Amino acid sequence: MTDTAVHSNPLSRRIAHVLALQPDSPALEFDEHWYSWGGIGGLTQRIGSIIESDQGPRPVGILLQNRPEHVAALLAVLLAGDTVVVINPSRGDDRTRDDIAALRLPLLIGAPGDLDALVVPAPEATVVSIPGPDALPEVRSTATTQNNEAARPGVAVRMLTSGTTGPPKRVDISYDMLARSVMGTDPAAADAPARPRKGVAVVNAPLVHIGGVFRVLQCVTEARPFVLLPRFELKSWVRAVRAHRPGAVSLVPAALRMVLHSELCREDLAGIRVVTSGTAPLSADDADAFYEKFGIPVLTSYAATEFGGGVAGWTLPDHEQYWTAKRGSVGRATGGARLRVVDEHGAVLGAGEAGVLEVIPGQLGPGADWVRTTDLARIDADGFLWILGRADQAIIRGGFKIMPDDVRGALESHPAVRGAAVVGRPDPRLGETPVAMVELHPDADASPGALTTFLQTRLARYEIPTELVVVQSIPRTPSGKPDLRAVRNHFETAASRHAQVHPSGNATAPAAADAPTHSTGHALSGPTAPADVTGHDTADPTEPGTVGRTEHEATDPSEHRSAGPADHETADPTGPVVADHAFSGHNQAGHTAAGYAETTRHRPVDLDGSDRAGR
């Protein structure tokens, strides 16, 4: 891409600098094949030449997958100063088509198969196909009418969230927020790399989530080569770790437990100095068991898409000094963030008092206001944050948030369904999964398996209930609403009946959450919905946080890099997590069950395992 085509913001300039730094050096490994910085840069330039416009910043929709050509498309849009509108091609065909139609974007980019299935030609849109990393991008159709849709000034990425207190929404992530997250608190003054880094990172956070975008951009801006995995799959992840010996990796809780319960040994993970864990709650028991087995500390953190990165997290020094006393906490303020807990009237509470968490994220820069989360929390006198629960009803399945009303609405759109109720049921590996109770119209006939098949084109696969039961009537409150407590009790009682004790005294674990159970009082076989996990790592765990009393701030941003999202190894929400065997989680009784509002997670050490805290 020519210099004149590069947007003037620090992030775009850094991307252009790195792509031209050493063109022959390896940049990205995919499917055990390396692509050079020059190769990625060349494809980026070809895509950029198609999307260049003299009309000012435009919103550009990309149906993102974890593939090299999709990384190039992402970089091309950012180099041009346009806005990447992230479109998840795996949310369910009907929903994705409706989403694309409602966006009315002037430009759409995607893989040929996704474009065939999901994009209906529109006169106002130019459609660009990216067949592969070694193929030229193709203009499928050109807009024939004027499209005046303009990007909001300064917005780099519009990320679709799953919603926590209402319908899904798109969150605008500015160029400034992204730059602070991946380049430091003063991006304009940050030194550009003089040569590519030697260490290799491993990335399998999905690009349709902000953690994947952050992670890829961090590697690019640091000129760090990385392995790009389509999703978390144990065998391919272990191959990458053994081959490249990264100093820091990240595992969301479901993936961490998969590694923990595998046959891997310390030698397999040799070289890893720290594991970060994000998105979903991780029990302190699992963190301790991982350390005992592999000798690697696990650092958790707290962040949000809206925050532009991490706001709290454990650091290595804090872990060594405080873990025993503070286990269950998500760490202290990082990256210039400020934290406080307020009551229902907005009054600031003291140390140890429980209330609603409010945050001023460091990534938002000077002058940012307090942001109220949907999380209940407490902060102790040393500044450590505990997340006590959620203030909404979202189901968090391995880090992916599911709104029960979305699933209920999809079920009730079936002509045979009179009503449905959807709740979350605890799962030892994924945290919780959706389960559904359905009431049919009189004389209607629809089997649980048929209903599950019906949902497959209307919901993302991780939203499909893992158990669906058809009943004569759903229990209801006096007002006529479904009695969700009774519905939840039904499924919890059924789960306890499934865990039967053998004559030997060994307990039989319930069916894996990946496999839906369909019943009218008993379990039936049915289509498989995959386990889904994701992770987003955003804070720097090598830097200690400071202590406040009712407001808690990170250390002076001038003393260290901002909380930048880094390692987040995660599974594709549409593909199964592949495990060697099923396993049950540790008993979490007595430990904080953390819930997160559109959370990402924090940055481990440095990506090569070095420790800027001097360790």
TrEMBL record:
Cite a single Pfam family from the UniProt record. Answer: AMP-binding_C
GO terms in the biological process aspect are: fatty acid metabolic process
* Feature: compositional bias, Basic and acidic residues: 549-571, 599-615
Q: Which InterPro entries is this protein grouped with?
A: AMP-bd_C, AMP-bd_C_sf, AMP-dep_synth/lig_dom, ANL_N_sf
Give one GO molecular function term: medium-chain fatty acid-CoA ligase activity
User: Low complexity bias located where?
Assistant: 507-517
- This protein is called what? AMP-binding protein
Which residues lie within the region annotated Disordered?
496-615
Q: Which residues form the AMP-binding enzyme C-terminal domain?
A: 410-481
> Domain named AMP-dependent synthetase/ligase: which ranges?
20-357
